[in-house]
């Protein structure tokens, strides 16, 4: 009869390659993705920082960044459950990179008086441009290559529910705050 000390106590996996890496908490993945979508994938913000002529104030572009990050957190809170987290992040980053390339090529800027025109005009015109060929690898594929290498911690249903509810509440709060800054007349009609 052989003594199997390491197998029975669970210390055998400590010495195997790949098992010693620390897993990322899903909340951190949601937060980092929301920040990336709100800041890096926000063409109007970067155009305002660059100081292009005819731009709205930098505060409006920052409010748009908060709105985009809040919407990303809302979507991830609704759809990212367990094994679907990386897939939802993949689709969200592809959509954000495409929208950033379309906004950059058309020069779309946040204009509170024409809120419906901004998103609708993304669908018109060419779908593939040189801006998309630059934005897709930088804004979507680089973070996705990093996320592919990162192990994400598996959680129980109750803990995953708490993380997703926190993402929903924080994302919703960010959306309401940014929308009240960008569209004050819309807020007055609801109150």
Euclidean distance between termini CA atoms: 76 Å
- The succession of helices and strands, N to C, reads HHHHHHHHH
Number of helices: 9
Q: What share of the residues lie within helices?
A: 55-70%
Uncertain residue segments: none
The structure class reads mainly alpha
- Report the portion of residues in β strands: under 5%
Gyration radius from CA atoms, angstroms: 21 Å
The biggest beta sheet is recorded as: none
The overall pLDDT, averaged over residues, is 78
Tally of individual domains: 1
What's the count of strands? Answer: 0
- Principal-axes geometry comes out as flat
If you had to describe this structure to a student in words, what would you say it looks like?
There is one protein chain. The chain has 191 residues and is mainly alpha-helical. The chain has one domain (24-49, 56-105, 127-184). The protein is built from nine helices and no strands. It has helices at residues 5-9, 26-40, 43-50, 58-79, 85-106, 115-120, 130-149, 157-182, 184-190. The longest helix has 26 residues, at 157-182. The chain is flat, with a radius of gyration of 21 Å. The N and C termini lie far apart (76 Å). The model has no long low-confidence stretch (mean pLDDT 78).
Could you list some keywords that capture this structure?
9 helices; single chain; 191 residues; mainly alpha
